[in-house]
Amino acid sequence: MITRSAHEMSSAMVSGEITSQELTKAHLDRISAVDKEVHAFLHVDTEGAMSQAKAVDEARARGEKLGPLAGVPLALKDVLVQKGIPTTCGSKILEGWRPPYDATVVTRLKNAGIVILGKTNMDEFAMGSSTENSAYGPTHNPWDLSRIPGGSGGGSSASLAAFQAPLAIGTDTGGSIRQPAAVTGTVGVKPTYGGVSRYGLVAFSSSLDQAGPCARTVLDAALLHEVIAGHDPKDATSIDSPVPQVVAAARSGDVKGMKIGVVKELNGDGYQAGVRSRFEESLELLAKAGAEIVEVSCPNFEYALAAYYLIAPSECSSNLARFDAMRYGLRVGDSDGASAESVMNLTREVGFGREVKRRIILGTYALSSGYFDAYYGSAQKVRTLIMQDFTKAFTKADVLVSPTSPTTAFKIGEKANDPLAMYLNDIATIPVNMAGIGGMSVPSGLAPEDNLPVGFQIMAPAMQDQRMYSVGASLEASLLSQWGAPLLSKIPALAGSK
């Protein structure tokens, strides 16, 4: 049962084949069996999950009308607050903190009857592409336990690939949903900025952060997207307009007559040979399904990475100033006579990891007097140029596509001491966040040289997220027909314990 899709699990509960309590227990047992190897979870809420499942079963027995995902378990990235449940953001500085309120995303999950299994591991404060920056140790990729599961949301993606949960929530600031999806053979969606509330999402970079659905199928992602999306008056950046018809698009998967634009600047040198070959094969499948493939140019994308690493650290240096040891979380050096300044300095030295400190320093410098216009101001001008590139490209194509990540999953520790090499993992995903549009990664097969998953990225105009789901569902159906079974059925690691 745990290897089925979320919508199949839902159907099984509706038919009486299984209860939510039985399904939740099966996933909790799976976590207990394999998470010592995978380390996808930072906190498992066994009691809370079983209580939520019981409530769904009782509501179903009373004949109440329930949502399409009611009773289905989910893994929640540890950057979204959940009342009374430890929320660390992968950092020692928040160790032991239990929020007094729920994020809007969490409220909507609970209202939909979705069972929250626990909180997943992540790069500290979502800063990283490998989940190696977690203060609680790295997560391992279920395809090969010696490799990274992507980042910053590697715990969420690994939980899906290891069959510990059928659904997960991630957040995406520069690719933190899509890149982990690519390297674990799962589906990850960054909705249009403002399409999903950021209330209760612990901020890294406020103008870039976006929560979104993670799943094993495109339809599952769409069903979850519909649950968490929509206007929220608690979030000033929330878009007050109808949620795109993502579920209908995922069910149809119709790309006949669509123009699919291949971004020239995201399909050049620097990509692993197997990544490129799977990408080209996916384009051929979409063309056979009735889409027209065209090439588009976005010349300012080459500056996206540099601009991102000025904007994101600048906003991070401001957002993380709140962790001052005075109000919540870790406090170090609080002895008689110690000054607030010394306590703050000692706590931040111990509580923040190396990558977080690096980005705070970068951001503080970029915002400092005499440098603001030269760095942060210039980066925002580049951001505008990137947005204009997208606008022009979308006059020629309905969606844009590229490989999601330039390589398959690399070995844990391989790039840990080379920040630039690590940052380059997000070279294809960052432009989407800079423009605030929607982006999706769907599996496109295994790279022949290492037999590891490859992702296919789909980008759509703002609030046209349904276009991504149409293309993603079409490609998924074509590949499923070709493979004869879901990609994750080919996973070698942990196979004996499924």
- Figure out the total of helices: 16
Overall SS class = alpha/beta
CATH H-level superfamily title: Amidase signature (AS) domain
H/E element order: HHEHEHEHEHEEHHEHEHHHHEHHEEH
Q: How many strands, what sense, and barrel or not for the largest sheet?
A: 11 strands, mixed
Q: What percent of the residues sit in helical stretches (DSSP H or I)?
A: 25-40%
General form: globular
**Overall tally of structural domains:** 1
Give the second-level CATH assignment, the architecture. Answer: Alpha-Beta Complex
> Termini, distance in Å?
10 Å
Strand order of the largest sheet: 1-3-2-4-6-5-10-11-9-7-8
Q: Provide mean pLDDT, rounded.
A: 95
- Percent strand equals 5-15%
Point out poorly predicted stretches.
Answer: none
Q: How many extended strands?
A: 11
Which CATH class? Answer: Alpha Beta
Annotated CATH topology: Amidase signature (AS) enzymes
The Cα radius of gyration reads 21 Å
